[in-house]
Amino acid sequence: MIWWIVKRDLLLAMRRRSDVLTTLFFFIIVVSLFPLGVGPEPNILRTMASGVVWVAALLASMLSLGRMFSSDYADGTLEQMLLSPVSLAALVTGKAISHWLVTGIPLVLMAPILGIQYDLPGDALLVLTLSLLLGTPVLSLIGAIGAALTLGLRGGGVLVSILVLPLYIPVLIFGTGAVEASSAGMEFGAHFSILGAFLLVSIVFSPWATAASLRISMS
Amino acid sequence: MTINWFKYASPASFYFLAGRMVPYFATLAIIFLVVGLYIGFFVAPTDFQQGEAYRIIFIHVPAAWMSMFLYVIMAFWAGVGLAFNTRLSSMVASAIAPTGAMFAFLALWTGAWWGKPMWGTWWVWDARLTSELILFFLYIGFMSLQAAIDDPKRADKAGAVIALVGVVNVPIIYFSVQWWNTLHQGASVSLVQSPKMATAMLSGMLIMTLAAWMYSIVMILTRTRLIILERERHTAWVSELKEGVLE
Fold this sequence. Notes:
The structure holds two protein chains of two kinds.
Chain A: H1 2-15, H2 17-38, H3 42-63, H4 66-74, H5 77-83, H6 88-117, H7 122-149, H8 156-183, H9 189-218
Chain B: H1 11-43, H2 57-84, H3 87-119, H4 127-148, H5 152-167, H6 169-180, H7 199-231, H8 236-242
């Protein structure tokens, strides 16, 4: 059932490729703006690379949250999903997975190229990419709760940022922490363990909270 | 005689109970405030390291404690409202949020005033400061979500979900000192160890905490009364109240 939703959402995303590309280009543009604002000094850029890439990833992931439920809400599909006998939490998990595949994966793939722009060494690039690979699904899962709560509200887009960005902070801290630890030549496995723990906890709790939020928003 | 435990779960009867309780708690708040400030300014000795500037802890620490405590209480009542569909619980949760946000802001503000003479900087990106800031954001998120929803039932439930999600953050705040161990001085007060500060300082701080607590109760009860009136304005008892029939 989860895979059915994932397949359907991926198909929809492929039919509207511009939506996917917009998020990706937003990510690229935000990351590219920082050197213009801060200056091209390689040492400064190298130290701030992980933070800039991660913050841009948070923003890109958050901006695309609106699409997770809104089109299904607009055409009534979401209502049918709520009425269906299948567990809503499973449907929501599928939604979060497809959100991650559509927005998270492109960010992960693009991150090493942007890291090169910031003159990151090879090891740090690898750690940055892996930390994003572990962290971005957490963003999609937490974001699903915010997207469900703000469904159909006035100013939902701005509201979702206020709700969701504070909850993203732990992921940001440990995601960038891993890159910094590896640049400093320290052990970064602990950061990955904590990111993995966040992922597991959010896989368990987020679909459930998102399903409850959808029921509240649709009642 | 059987006791009706749910008598005061009805907004109408709670309205009058809260109205009777407010003066008592207000009196307690004023007494604790006067005693606490007196101890804080005149009895507590000057700190040998920090001089007079440490006295801001008499506001700072109670504000920080209350901001965290109130978030948990808010999430608790919001959760009760979500689980049992009791309207009053959700109203209390919405009434707690502004006071909690105020305390979080106060803790950050007084912390900055203390940080300037002590650390030589208004702000550092230390774990505890940052968590307090995140807590402030969580309060803002809760309030803006509720404000954006016109239907009070949906607002209550949506707020409850976000409060419960955010409550995961409160233990992270508390344990962040051990987790990240940075510039902020470790907690000086602990239930297991004997306190590291002078008795007068500690008692002043605890009395100020009681004052903040009583103040919060007064504000929350008053605000709950206002929310009750707003939500129940179409009911018979509110119009009777308006015409002065009920006392």
